[in-house]
């Protein structure tokens, strides 16, 4: 499911936020209109971005997005390093018995 919304963040107007559902795909039109993308998008789709400001990945890994020209030069890339550490470590006592 993709969601588009308008919001104001830190005084900068954000017109389009696209949420990439892990089971779904965004269209090139949605990506082209997005100021913010939340979720892991196919890196090849980023060439459609016209004014992307932030790409927030749902995973800790970001290697697929490091190639030159993948993320627009003016956009910020953020990933979820450390976001799942406590949740995973809490499960280890039960998993490793």
List the helices and strands and how they pair.
Layout: E1 7-9, E2 12-14, E3 17-19, H1 28-33, E4 36-38, E5 54-56, E6 76-78, H2 85-95
Parallel strand pairs: 3-4, 4-5, 5-6
Antiparallel strand pairs: 1-2
Throw out a few tags for this protein.
elongated; 97 residues; single chain; disordered N terminus; 6 strands; 4-stranded parallel beta sheet
Textual characterization of the structure:
A hairpin with a 2-residue loop joins β1 and β2. The model is unreliable at 1-11 (pLDDT under 50). The protein is α/β, with parallel strands linked by helices and 97 residues long. It has a four-stranded parallel sheet, with no helix packed on it. It has a two-stranded antiparallel sheet with strand order 1-2. The protein is built from two helices and six strands. The chain has helices at 28-33, 85-95; strands at 7-9, 12-14, 17-19, 36-38, 54-56, 76-78.
């Amino acid at each position: 499911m993709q969601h588009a919304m308008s919001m104001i963040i830190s005084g900068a107007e954000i017109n389009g936020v696209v949420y990439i559902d892990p089971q779904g795909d965004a269209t090139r039109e949605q990506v082209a209109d997005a100021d913010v993308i939340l979720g892991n998008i196919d890196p090849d789709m980023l060439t459609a971005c016209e004014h992307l400001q932030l790409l927030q990945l749902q995973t800790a890994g970001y290697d697929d997005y490091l190639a030159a020209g993948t993320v627009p030069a003016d956009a910020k890339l953020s990933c979820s390093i450390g976001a799942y550490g406590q949740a995973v470590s809490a499960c280890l006592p039960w998993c490793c018995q």
